[in-house]
Amino acid sequence: MKKLNPTVKFGTILALALLVSFQNNVLLNTVLAVLFLLLVSYYLPVKKLLLLSVFLTLAAAGVFFTGLIFYRDNQHGTTNISSLQYAIGLASRIYCFGFTGSLFAATTSMTAFIYSLQQQLHLPAIFAYGLMAAFHMAPMIPHEYRNTINSLRSRGITNNYFSIKIVTPLLVKTIRWSELLATAMTSRGFSSDETRTYSQHYVINWPDWLFCAGLLGLGLLLTIFHGDNLFK
Questions:
Q1: What membrane topology is annotated for this entry (predicted)?
Q2: 77 — alpha (psi -120 to 50), left (phi > 0) or beta?
Q3: How confident is the model at residue 38 (pLDDT cuts 50, 70, 90)?
């Protein structure tokens, strides 16, 4: 999975997510969730896999009862097989989306994904490096958030965690970071109009096409099978 082209991998997973989103197909959701769970379990440690499963289960339980109550209210307060199928279909989507997204995150680095978008989809360099900069700055925000809280506490000021007195310094710092980064890139001669070279080239090979065709074919096959059952 790590050797697959990041753009093809992302496009395939996105297409599967759209296919799942526009239908209430429990069989499709279950097959994809189990398949990607097996793949994710190979790349994630057991602790992270269990933590991911717990969060997905909590989210799925909430969606299940929400869908069940919503469907029951529209059916004049009656709970039947259709309402259970509707709720199970919504809940199974959570596992499907969670495991597919986790597999992409576990097998693809942000740098490789950005470079692949530049080479395969011709993403402009100014957007590519902006995304990369934002990704690398994100881990700094929690550290600055804690520093801001400690700084206010040292002055005898206590606020809740979403106070404007805490959020405002963070916004100012992020703006300052972006200005410094833009200045640094300009001073080093960065230009979005110039032709750039890459230390690593990403190409689309036959395993990428096999991965894309196999998963999309499986998704379409289960969609057609589900549609045939609906009309019986």
A1: Multi-pass membrane protein
A2: left
A3: very high
- List, as one string, the DSSP characters of 168-223: HHHHHHHHHHHHHHHHHHHHTT--TTS----SS-----HHHHHHHHHHHHHHHHHH
Tokens 């090979």 belong to residue: 205
Same domain, 48 and 98: yes
Q: Which of 36, 18, 32, 90 is nearest to 61 (CA)?
A: 90
Other beta carbons within 10 angstroms of residue 69's beta carbon come to 13
Looking at the fold, whether 19 and 103 belong to one and the same domain comes out as yes
The answer to whether the CB of 67 falls within 8 A of the CB of 90 is yes
**Tally of domains in the chain:** 2
Residues 166-213: tens digit of each pLDDT: 778 778 888 888 788 778 777 877 766 667 777 788 888 999 999 999
Residue 210 tokens, joined:
């096999």
> Is residue 194 included in any domain, yes or no?
no
Please give the single-letter amino acid code of residue 59: A
Do residue 69 and residue 155 come from a single domain? no
pLDDT at 145 (0 to 100): 82
For the entire predicted model, the pTM comes to: 0.78
Q: Which two tokens stand for residue 197?
A: 């070279």
Residues 155 and 62 in one domain: no
